Amino acid sequence: MHEGTHGIVEAQHVHQPKPNLLSRYRKWIFPGFLLLTILAGLIPGQKALLGFDIALVPMLLGGGFITYNTIIATLETRRITAGLLVVIALIGSAYVGEYLAAAVVAFMMIGGEFLEEITLEKTRNAVRELVRLVPETALVLRAGQWVEVSVEVVRPGDRVLVKPGQRIPVDGRVIAGNAAVNQATLTGESMPVDKGPGDPVFVGTLNESGALEITAEKVGEETALGRIIQVVYEAQERKGPTQRVADRFAAYFTPLILLICAVVWFVTQDLMRVMAVLVIACPCALVLATPTGVVAAVGNAARRGVMIKGGAVLELAGRINTLLLDKTGTLTLGRPEVVEITAFGSATADQVVTVAAAAEERSEHPIARAIMNRARTERASWDSADEFVQVFGMGVQASVTGHLVRVGNRRLLELGNLTNAADGQQFLEEQERSGRTALLVARGSEILGGIAVADTVRPDAAEAVRRIKKAGISQVIMLTGDNPATAQAIASQVGIDEVRANLLPEDKLKVVADLKAQGQVVAMVGDGVNDAPALMTADVGIAMGAAGTDVAVESAGIALMGDDLNTLSEIFSLSRRTLGIIYQNIWVFAVAVNAIGITLASSGWLSPIGAAVVHNVASVFVVLNSARLLTYRSDRALALRG
Ligand code: ADP
Ligand code: MG
After folding, report:
1. Which listed CATH number (3.40.1110.10, 3.30.450.20, 3.40.50.300, 3.20.20.80) goes with 337-454?
2. Which residues surround ligand 2, an ion (CB under 5 A)?
C-alpha cells in the first residue's frame, strides 16, 4: 500500500469495525465476572457450603491481573509506578485474610480504568468525525471512462470528478467546472466559496452545486485534513511541561506515601488503615489530569480546522501575553492591486509595466502577482528573465536582455547613484503617505518609473483585534517589511497601536527574540515563507491559511486551515480554559482529594474499600472534567453564532 494513505486508511478502519455482539461486550466480561463473584462472596454461609471462600476467586484473578500489569509497567519504565501502592495493599489484605476487601479493591481499580476508557472514547470520536469526512470512493478517469474506485488507490495526478452534494476526496486543483464549495469542515468558514478552474480544493469539503473536475495533488495523510488527523493522534503521545511535572511529582509521591504508611503503622499498628492510605494515595487522577485535557482541547480545535501540535504548544498558547501579527496576507487579504503607475524622464508607463513584469514573473510574492495581473490585463508582452533573485523584504532582481532590472523598495535601490532619483524619491514619499506600498522599477542605472500597490484590509481584522485584546492579550504589535507610513495607515484601520515597520525577515525574528528575552510569552501570526524563521522562534508560531501552504505549517505550532482571524481569540480562550481545567484536575481531584483521603484513612474513617471508591470517583471526575473541553466555545463565539 502507498505510504501516504496509511494514516487515513488506518483511521477509517478504526471507525468501521463489523460490530458483533461478542466483540461489543467483550470488555464487559472480565469486570462483570469479578463483580458477580464478589457478590457471591457476600452470601452468608457460602464458605461453609463450598469449603473455601469464593471471594478468593475475584481476589486472585483481579489482584493477579493488577499485579501482573504493574510489574510489567515498572519493568518497562524502570521507575516506581503508582500501581505498586495498590499491589502492596492487595498483598497486605490477602495476608491478613481480608479476601473480600482485596477483591473489591482490585475490582474498583479495574472498573475505574474501564470507565475512564469509555469516557476517553468520546475524545477519540473527535478524530473519527474528521475521518468520516473522507469519502470512501472517488470517480476517477481511467482509459477515458469515469470509474468509481476506492479512495485509497487514487494517486496524485489522477483526474477526479466530484458531483454536486459529494465531498471532495483529495486535495487538488479544479481543471473544469464551477461550483460553490463549503469548506466549513476545514476552515470553520460556513459561507461556501466559489471554485473554478485553477482553484485549490481540499479533501472533506462539500461540493454544494455543480460538477467539478479536479486533478489530485495530495492524497491520504499528505492532505490538509490528513495532517490534522495525524496531529490529533500525536497529541495523545506528546507530553507538555505540566505533564512532566505530574510525572516527576508521582515519582516523589510514592516514597512519601510509603513513609506516611510507616508512621501510621508505627502509631496505630492497624494494617487496615495502612492499606486504606495505600489505596487512596495512588495518583491516578494526577496522571490523568494533563493528557485528558490536552487531547480534548486538541480535538476541539481540530473540528474548527485548527491544528495544535501537542500539549506543550497548548500550554504556551494559554499563557501568551504578546501577539505579533504580520501585515501582508494576515491583516490584509494579501491580494494587492496595482493602483498607480508613473513613468519618469523619457520612459513610458507601458515600459514600466513590461520591464517590471519581466523581472517579477518568477516571484511568488503577492506584489509580484499584482504586477503580473496588471501586465496581463494590459495584454503587454515582456521578455523573459535569466538569473532571477528574490531579495526577501526588498524586491526582485533579474537579468533581462542583458540589463540588470530591479523592482523593489528604497532598500533595494540606492537612489543616490541612479538617474531620475529625485522623481523616484518624490513618488515613494507621496504614495507611502497615502498608505500604499510603493516600488521603483530600475533598468541598469536608470529608474524608469514607480508602481504603487494597495492591499485591502481584511473586513474582519478590526473586530478580530478587538476580541484578541478582550481575550486578555495585552500587547498586540503589527510587523511588516513595508515602510512605516503605509504600515501606520493600516494599523490605525484595524486598531493596532504598536507597529514595527521596514523589517527584513531576520529583523522579524529579532523582534520575537527580544520580546522573549524581556520575559514576554510571544505568539507570532504569519502566512508566508518569509515568516517561517519568526514563527519558529516565537513561543507559539501560528500559520494562517495553512490548507494551501506547507512551509508555514511545518514551522508553526498552531496552523489555521482557514484564514478567519476571529479564530485566533477563540484558540487563546480555549488554551486558557484548558490550563484552567488541568489545574482544577490537579489541585482539586488529585491533590485535595488525596490529602483529605489520606487524613481520613490514617485516622480510621475510611476503609480500604471506601478508599478504592473515592479514588476511582476522583479519576472518573478528572476525565469528565477534561471532556468538557471537547465542546468548549468562548461565550462571545456563542453569542455571535446564535
Ligand atoms: P510583509 O512583512 O508586509 O509581508 P515582505 O517582507 O514580504 O512584507 O516584503 C517587504 C517589502 O519588500 C514589500 O513591502 C516590498 O516593498 C518589498 N518586496 C518584497 N517582495 C517584492 C517583490 N516581489 N517585488 C517588489 N517588491 C517586493
Ligand atoms: Mg508576509
Report:
1. 3.40.1110.10
2. 326, 328-329, 528
